[in-house]
Each structure stands twice: as structure tokens, then as C-alpha cells.
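Listing S7. Sequence submitted for prediction.
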Amino acid sequence: MRHYPYDHILFYPGHTCRTCKLLKPARSKHCSICKTCVAKHDHHCIWLNNCLGRGNYQYFILMLFFTGILLSYGAYLAYIILSDLLQGTLSSAGSGQHWSAGKPWKVYFQFWAWAIVHYVRIGFVGLLALMCSPLAWGLLIYHLYLIWAGMTTNESVKWSELREDVEDGLVFIRMKLGGKALSGPANHIATAGLAQGKDREKEWEDEEEEQTDLAGDDTEPRVKWPVSTNQVVVRTSNGESPPLPRSGRVQGVQGWRRVEGLQEINNIYDLGFWDNIWGIFESG
């Protein structure tokens, strides 16, 4: 519960897992295959038959890196061995000329096909490594992009859904200025919230009127987090601008404006690439 703060955009305090019947920590997700809630859930990997999250994501990244190196080395080693075999078969002794010199591309690939079939164990293992290495490197590059963006695979889906609502004109934002500085989660989320429809209008007002008590809320424990935001983000069901809070205790409040692009919304989990990397390996 105390690893990550709730951003009130993708994750909210007080939500209970319908299966585990326990409070859901920020960035967590219940896995129907593992039958448990996973902290900082990324995805369930069918190759590992296990979920990837806060406790093992760094090992998954290392596995992709070393798998890519192993596959690339295997393909290169097969190439060297088969090339030497072709050199000994096709070149005259003492000529010093490479076997492929002067040959057109069609003949060149025909000789490689012959070598792969003639030395089938080396050829097919090398060919398999050559075809699989881009998959490992591609998956690693994708996850490095997620780390750079400060999100998990699960969160990337949630941001995509939010982007669709932005394109539909359902998301509004305003900046909250001034007011008393808060400690704990209230400091770095600054009462950021995500609401749906008129059913949560009262919650918006209560949240801002009682913000000074937020740090002591049992459903949202104090979390030390270096990033803060003063954005308040809401999602409506009808595309109409939400009402401003009527409380006189809320000062420095700007009006709502429609979000034009997802880049206008802060991601408090993005600390920068190197800090994101460090956070992954530090959590192991």
C-alpha cells in the first residue's frame, strides 16, 4: 500500500478488489490466472507462466537483454561455422580468396541454402536464433519505452482509454493554485481527481473541502514520492464542463477547460528515464 501514491487519474484510494476483498494499492491489478493482486502489475507472461510486477520486473528486463545477446551470438556463431565450412568446400587450397567473391546474389544465397540443409543441426539452430533475436530485442525496446514513459503495460492500456475520452471531449482539467501546502499523498497529488458523471459532483466538493484531512485517510496512506502536481482532472459522461466547488475555503481555483491532448495531463509516476530505471531495480 505504501510503495506508490494514488494519482486519482488511473488509480483511486478506497477501491476494493472484487475477488480478493482487499484494498487495492496504487498501480496494482488482480490477475485471474495467478488469482492474486499484483503490485505494480505489468502483464501476465505466458512464457514464464507468472505475473510481472514490482518484485520481478527487473529480472524480466535482464532476461530479455541476455536472451537477445544469446540469440544474436548463436546466429553469428552459426554464420561463422557455416562460412568456414563453405570456404573449405568451395575455395581452392592456398588461393586466399573468400568463397563468395565474384558470385552473384542468387548463387550466394543458393550456397547458403545448401550449407543449411547439408549441415542441418548447425544451420537450423542458427536460422532459428536469427529469426527469434529480433523478437527479444523488439520486446526489450518496447519495455524500455514503457520505462521511459513511466508506465507499465497495464497502465499503457488505461492511458489509451483516457486518450479516447480526450478525443471524445469528455475530459476536463483545471489548475489549483495557492492554499496550504499538504504533506503525504495530498502534497504530490494536490487533490487531483478523476470523476465520471454527475454522481461524483458531491465527491469533488467533499474532496476539496476536506483536503487537509487527506494525509490521515486510512485508505490513502502517506507515501514518500518526489513528484507533485496541482492538476485536477475529471472525466464526465456527457462532455459538459463540471461545476466549480462552492466551498469558500478553496482559494486560487481556475476554471475548467477541456483537455485537448493527453500531454496536458501529468503522469506522477514518470520520474525521468534514469530514475525510472533505478526505481525498477531498487524495488527488487
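Caption to Listing S7: primary sequence and predicted C-alpha cells for the chain studied. Residues 178-218, 248-252 have pLDDT under 50 and may be disordered. Strands lie at 29-31, 36-38, 43-45, 50-52, 171-175, 231-235, 257-258.
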